[in-house]
Amino acid sequence: MRVLIVDDHAVVRRGIRAYLEVLDDMEVAAEAADGQEALTRLDAMAAHRELPDVVLIDLLMPKMDGATAIGMIKTSHPDVRVVVLTSFGEMERVHAALAQGAAGYLLKDAEAGEVVAAIRAAARGEVFLDPAVARGLTQEIVSPPTGLASLTSRERDVLVLVAEGRSNQQIADELVISERTARTHVSNVLRKLRLTSRTQAALFAVRQGLVPPRA
Q1: What is the mean pLDDT of each run of 10 residues along the chain (215 residues)?
Q2: How many whole angstroms separate alpha carbon 62 and alpha carbon 108?
């Protein structure tokens, strides 16, 4: 199977390539240093009908991060499977990657054999998760986070702006998102915190020490 390796560290790419290329069923089709370069390479491969089976991608990279790239890869080349290999195991990042269409999520302390297993599983149409990531997802199901811990970092930003009295449009302008997306974030904040109004959200933010009390 053909693999595209995407990581902004050349030494990481070379290490993965060296390991994969000794395997009989693996071929490294190309390398890319960021999400934008990965998309460019995939488009070029598609023009020659040489798309890889799997993209192995990091998350934090310059120009275009991995999560954004995953979504664009799945939109442009839906048959290409994507496996994340990153140093970051926060559940917010895991959710973002899986929501964009990732077929696997590994941490960089994984054994080489696990990386290969994840690539093979993705090529078969299966999902492969790092054991630590799987435990985190399971824990969320068994004991879902509540209160402030249930919010993503973006939702916390929205909560602070709501507490400051900003309208949805002002929140959108501040965060450089659409008004519709801002409205959705506000609704998610209220739902997760089990609140019914922006005033209650503002009071919650003050009690949590996120903003000072308004005069």
Answers
A1: 95 94 94 95 95 96 89 94 93 87 94 94 95 87 78 91 94 91 91 91 91 73
A2: 18
For the chain, count helices (H), then strands (E): 10, 6
Q: Residue type at 47?
A: A
* CA dihedral sign of residues 116, 85, 32, 81: positive
Output 156-161 pairs: Cβ under 8 A, ≥24 positions apart: 156/210, 158/182, 158/185, 158/186, 158/189, 159/189, 159/193, 159/201, 159/204, 159/205, 159/210, 160/205, 160/210, 160/211
Q: Half-sphere exposure of residue 82, counting CA atoms within 13 Å on the CB side? A: 29
Please name each of the domains of the chain with its CATH number: 2-138 (3.40.50.2300), 141-208 (1.10.10.10)
Q: What tokens were used for 132? A: 């630590």
Beta bridge partners of 84: 57, 105
Name the 3-class secondary structure at 25: coil
- What's the Cα-to-Cα distance from 189 to each of 66, 82, 103, 179, 182, rounded to whole Å? 25, 30, 28, 15, 11
Q: List the structure tokens of 81.
A: 């499977």
- Separation of alpha carbons 9 and 26, rounded Å: 21
Note the residue count of the chain: 215
> What is the β-pairing status of strands 81-86 and 104-107?
parallel
Looking at residue 111, the DSSP 8-state letter turns out to be -
Q: What is the DSSP code (8-state) at residue 123?
A: H
What amino acid is encoded at 175 in this protein? L
